[in-house]
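re: that chain from earlier
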Amino acid sequence: MAKSHSAFVCQNCGAVYSRWQGKCEACEEWNTIAEEAAAAGAVPASQRTKRKGRSLKLEPLQGASEEAPRTPSGIAELDRVTGGGFVRGSVVLIGGDPGIGKSTLLIEAAASLAKNKRRVVYVTGEEAIAQVRMRAERLGLSAAPVELAAETNVEDILATLGEGATPTLVVIDSIQTLWTEAVESAPGTVTQVRASTQALLRFAKSTGAAVVLIGHVTKDGQIAGPRVVEHMVDAVLHFEGEGGHQFRVLRALKNRFGPTDEIGVFEMTGEGLREIDNPSALFLSDRDAGSPGTAVFAGIEGTRPLLVEIQALVALTALGTARRAVVGLDPNRLSMILAVLEARCGVKLSGHDVYLNVAGGLRVIEPAADLAVAAALVSSLSGAALPADAVYFGEVSLTGAVRAVPRAAARLKEAAKLGFARAVLPEAVRQEAAEGLSLTTIPALTALVAEIAARAPRLRRAGGDDA
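^ sequence. v structure.
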């Protein structure tokens, strides 16, 4: 009887060890290493016989394609993120928190393609067929000719997909539930996820079918499973949203065939996901324009201009160390802006708690939000409300200067379209004002602080002294 072989694999990063140990040296996580058996009938490397490789047919770089390289899903926001639709032969991994709407989004995309005479196969490993039908009936999509299957064995799935015409789209819900007979491990382990993904990847490349894999996420929001899976697939999408808000944001973390800075915005309703054509109006719908500490930021997400509200609250601390709490923005960016305000502008914030929030739960990553953040902080500290018809954008440097940011024209056009009358922006931006919009240029952050302080009914300095 052949001796069985096994390895110890980290279930977090996929690192392989010859023996068990408590801490993974690759990802530095504890208690993530588990023993996994080698493939049944696997031959050790020392006993394998070398075979002569076969020659491959080489193709020229230029060539005609019989079919369109992309297949639009019929959902404009999804197509925006993927770069125009699903690429033939591509594998897309989409992750998100439980209940965020991943399955709802993909069943809507599957139904849209099926109604356009495309063959679509939806394979679920987590639900029964009856449960998928219940969701489709609730969404009003039960009449769409989508082919369903409830299966977790990869070999059976591939055998089924090979029958009849090649599917245009295959949805796998989820990759963590699949298992292949090629390896002896439990479903969801690193080895099974990697082997199952590899088998589906070979199917997609050889047949031209687009495969979408739904993936679970860990407690810190990362897609579960080995990192190598994200390198194997062609695109990685993340579906995110806050539990207290009705909208959802779809982002591309990786895309070999399109941009990675686009976002798609949806609203979760009782009848499924609804596309948001004008996200700015949604994010600004409930803003309180007359309160100190709020500023409207004119941002850019990919090719789309987006206006969001920045909220700040500055209060005297009751503790020995002031607290800094931020939602929707990089905490390091907030720390930098606070340091510049204190060192360059004389705004004493070291004895105050600072709370910052991007309204609506959106996550802002571009440095153009620096000016809006600084304006909201100074407004909250001084008690002076900012003009309700003004938008802010500009990058703040460590010297206190306000630097120019790209695509100012698109930001101003979006602000004018939503009824704003004034824009506060860097002096270095050489841009004509949009119709009905006046421009106020700021060369340095000190000018912004002085302008807000001049309107303050009382300027609360450090220690609570009145000006």
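The first strand starts at residue 6 and ends at 10.
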